[in-house]
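[scheduler] slot 2 assigned
[scheduler] job type: sequence-to-structure, two independent chains
[scheduler] chain ordering preserved from manifest
[runner] begin chain α
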Amino acid sequence: MRAAYLWLARIITLLVVVQAMTIVFAVAGLFHWIEKGGSIDASVVSDWDTTRPTFTGAVGHYIHGLAGERVFPVLALLLLIISFFAKVSQGVVLALVLLVLVLLQTFTGLYGDKMPYLGLVHGLNAFLIFGAAMAAAMKAKEPAAAAAA
């Protein structure tokens, strides 16, 4: 179980990096598309889920949303469940902190279009998730004797 805890924490850390890469790819692609004559208005945004844009990087929006809304919460919940059996020093606390941060991240991502200042929290919170997942992975790598002490 300790190995599962370690790998889940590592995967969460890696997913934060993937999230950053995909959203920057999407925004850069959108700006490039606009520079080349494309335009975006309310109809493009409202039809986004049914008529996907075709500009380079548009898939980044989809990946970012899918991972943020579905993958991250499941992984964080799995980490919390496993933490009860993994015997990692402070493992349950770190997993609980990660779950709360992931839920905050999901909330700020879902409602950022209605309250743009949530984007500031969303960006900062990504770093907090990364740090907490790194801390969890480092704790899981400690020898079992250190965890028992």
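[runner] end chain α
[runner] begin chain β
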Amino acid sequence: MFRPAVIALLLLATLPLDCNAYIDPNAGGILFQLLAPLLAAIAGVWMFLRRWISQAVRRLWNALTGRSDK
């Protein structure tokens, strides 16, 4: 039913192997140093664009409805 090559591959795939998964204790610090300024820049751009977009939408809405800015 199964070919010997398929059985051999299945047995090979189920063999337990050594896992060397060590993360350096300072890796979190490096990630923070990389991600913190990036996230701060993204938040700053988001806040700047949110204000600009809301003002543009408000001006467009007022122009469409015939209202003046108060």
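[runner] end chain β
[qc] chain β: The first helix runs from residue 4 to 13.
[scheduler] slot 2 released
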